[in-house]
Each structure stands twice: as C-alpha cells, then as structure tokens.
C-alpha cells in the first residue's frame, strides 16, 4: 500500500496508507458515527463533495455486494442508494481486506478503487473526530505524501452546490409503477430508499430532476415529495422559487425529507443555518412536539431550519433531543410538512417509517 495523508485547512496532518484509488481530492471533512451500513452511506448523494470520516474502528468487514443492475425498477432491489460512490474520499482507522458475508462480491478497497475514490486507513479517527467536534467541519485534502498544503490548495476547485446536486440526480425523468396514487419526487440528490419506501406502500413515483420545470408533472401527480441532497439549501433558490410559484399554488400535499425540510422552510419564508459539525449518524433522538413521543433516527445533514424565522402559518414539528435544533416543520393551514431526518433509514433504524404511511394516507384523502 502507498503512503497517503489527510491535510486539514488549518495545517493539521494525518498520515496513513492508501487502500482505494490513489489520487488527490479536496472536500469538506465530516464524520459519521454509524457502526455499519457503509455501502448505503458511501452511495448516499448527500455526501457529494465531502471527505467522510467513519468513526467506527473497523470498516469493510462484510465486503460489498455485487454491482447493481441498471434497469430503473431493479435499482430498487439492492443495498445501494445511488448508482455510484458519492463521497470525495474516505478516512478510516482500519479496513478489512478479507471480508466475510454471503453477499460479498469484492472488498471495500476494491470497490473504491474501481470507482476512482481515494481512501486512507491507519488514521486516528477518534482524535480527528474530536477535532472536528471542537472546531467544526473544515476543508481537507487527501493527497500524496510529497504534496504540500500550498500545492493541495492550488489544486482544489470550488464547485457550486447546485452543480453538485445536478451531479447526483437522475439524468432525466424516471417513472416507477407501484399503484394508483402518483407521487412527484423532486430529486435534489435523492436516496433510492425513498423511492423504495413509496413504491413498497403501493404508490407510483415520478422522479424529476430539480432543475426541470415541475409544472407539467404536477398536473398528473397526487402529492409532492421533496428529497434529500448535498450542500447548502440556499444554493438551490431556483428550486425554492418553483415551490413558491408552482407547487404551493397547486395545493397538493407536500412531504419533505432532509434537504426537503430546508427547501420547504425557505419556500415558506423561513431561514436556514449551518450546524457546527452536522448530524451524521444512525442514532439521533428526535421528539414529536405534537405527541411528545421520541424516535431514534438516521440523519445526514449540515444545515437546519431556524425555528425563529418561520412565519406564523408554520410551526416546528420535531426537535433534536441532543441539541434542540429543528427536525421538522408543518404548515398550520395546508397539508404541507417535512422532517430533517430520514424516515427510510438505510442505514439505520426504521422507527419513523410510519411517516410515509401517514403521507400517503393524506395524499389519498385529498385526491381529486
């Protein structure tokens, strides 16, 4: 294995060994505390543009399943959340070169190398995570041992997050047949598990990239689902304007997930703010402010809706029990609501999966 290092923007250096593609990349360094589910995590489009640190000390021990099929419906039957690895790079303490699992087809290192994604092991991920928790997410560079911090910064390129979202969405409209109810999924980097969750409940999905005109598809759908996606929601103001000018006037039920929560908040007239180091784990506790029940949820985001900015027609729906940040909003007068966490999990607990049932019941009750 070749030597490699992680450079942080503040000059901190973490040395290690390469076990993926040996190439240099730049990105925002973030951490995830999940103990398993690396296949789903690495293919989650919300990680586009980021160097991911996995805090659990051993990764790759159950390998990677066979490559996914390319037919649209077949895509809904595997463990991948998109068609490729989405992270810029991966940082772990140790990876397993000899995985053991009945569904294993290749090692984590082989998979990353085939996708052109660099990875580094033998890094003290606990110390790195403590640093990120103290100072917040920072820009970082996965580079060769001989590359200096100055050279690394010179090679990095700033990419608008709207462009990043475009890289993670389906190239054109895809239809998934599942039932009489039709749901318009506004794809800003959607996980395939969101589609799986809706189709499994007997509804059809029209998956439309966020940059397309939504009006023609609104005419044939019964409800609107706003997906997750990478980056700052304020880079997606064109989509926010579409929500205000087209989706809101339609009066159709709306349900948002993750970035969908932020986009709905902005469209309502609220504001979003960046968290110090985000929520990226499978054990985030949230409380329903209506029922006072708590749920353990899977999350992956760096921005949240500011409760205080919501207009009077809107109210917080869920709250994060750990830090008090917003985890969902709802309109008092319209069938519009969203959550900051992932009801579909993948990976993680499915405690909140009932929210898809509730949404589809609402859609069915308002269908003309």
Q: What do these coordinates show?
A:
The chain is α/β, with parallel strands linked by helices and 368 residues long. It folds into two domains: 3-158, Carbamoyl-phosphate synthase small subunit, N-terminal domain (Glucose Oxidase, domain 1, 3-Layer(bba) Sandwich), CATH 3.50.30.20; 164-366, 3-Layer(aba) Sandwich (Rossmann fold), CATH 3.40.50.880. Helices cover 24% and strands 31% of the residues. It has helices at residues 38-42, 108-114, 125-135, 149-155, 161-168, 192-199, 215-218, 237-250, 259-268, 354-366; strands at 3-8, 13-18, 25-32, 50-54, 58-59, 89-91, 94-95, 119-121, 138-144, 174-176, 181-187, 203-209, 223-226, 254-257, 272-288, 294-305, 314-320, 326-331, 336-339. The protein has a ten-stranded mixed sheet, sandwiched between helices. It has a seven-stranded mixed β-barrel with strand order 1-2-8-6-4-3-9. A hairpin with a 5-residue loop joins strand 15 and strand 16. It is globular and about 65 Å long. The model has no long low-confidence stretch (mean pLDDT 92).
Mean pLDDT level: 92
Indicate the overall shape: globular
For this structure, the quaternary state is single chain
Number of strands: 19
> Can you tell me the CATH architecture of the largest domain?
3-Layer(aba) Sandwich
Briefly note the CATH topology name of the largest domain: Rossmann fold
Task: Note the total helix count.
Answer: 10
Strand content: 25-35%
**What about the largest sheet?**
10 strands, mixed
């Amino acid at each position: 294995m070749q030597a490699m290092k992680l450079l942080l923007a503040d000059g901190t250096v973490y040395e290690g060994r390469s076990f993926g593609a040996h190439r240099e990349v730049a990105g925002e360094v973030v951490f995830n505390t999940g103990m398993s589910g690396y296949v789903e995590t690495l293919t989650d489009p919300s990680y586009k543009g980021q160097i991911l640190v996995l805090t659990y000390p051993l990764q790759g021990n159950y390998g990677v399943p066979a490559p996914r099929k390319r037919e649209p419906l077949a895509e809904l039957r595997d463990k991948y959340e998109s068609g490729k690895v989405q992270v810029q790079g991966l940082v772990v303490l140790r990876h397993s070169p000899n995985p053991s699992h009945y569904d294993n087809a290749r090692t984590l290192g082989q998979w990353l190398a085939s996708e052109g994604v660099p990875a580094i092991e033998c890094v003290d991920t606990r110390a790195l995570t403590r640093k990120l928790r103290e100072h917040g997410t920072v820009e970082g560079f996965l580079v060769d041992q001989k590359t200096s911090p100055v050279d690394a910064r010179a090679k990095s390129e700033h990419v608008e997050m709207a462009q990043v979202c475009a890289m993670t969405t389906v190239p054109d409209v895809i239809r998934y047949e599942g039932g009489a109810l039709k749901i318009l999924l506004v794809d800003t980097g959607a996980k395939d598990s969101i589609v799986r969750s809706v189709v499994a409940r007997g509804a059809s999905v029209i998956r439309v990239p966020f940059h397309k005109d939504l009006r023609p598809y609104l005419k044939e759908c019964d409800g609107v689902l706003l997906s997750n996606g990478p980056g700052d929601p304020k880079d997606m103001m064109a989509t926010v304007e579409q929500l205000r000018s087209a989706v809101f006037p339609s009066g159709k039920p709306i349900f948002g997930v993750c970035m969908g929560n932020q986009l709905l908040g902005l469209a309502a007239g609220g504001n979003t703010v960046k968290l110090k180091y985000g929520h990226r784990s499978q054990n985030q506790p949230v409380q329903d402010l209506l029922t006072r029940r708590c749920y353990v949820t899977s999350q992956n985001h760096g921005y949240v809706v500011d409760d205080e900015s919501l207009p009077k027609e809107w109210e917080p729906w869920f709250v994060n029990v750990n830090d008090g940040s917003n985890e969902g909003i709802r309109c008092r007068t319209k069938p519009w609501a969203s959550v900051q966490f992932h009801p579909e999990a993948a990976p993680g607990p499915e405690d909140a999966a009932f929210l898809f049932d509730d949404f589809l019941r609402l859609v069915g009750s308002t269908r003309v």
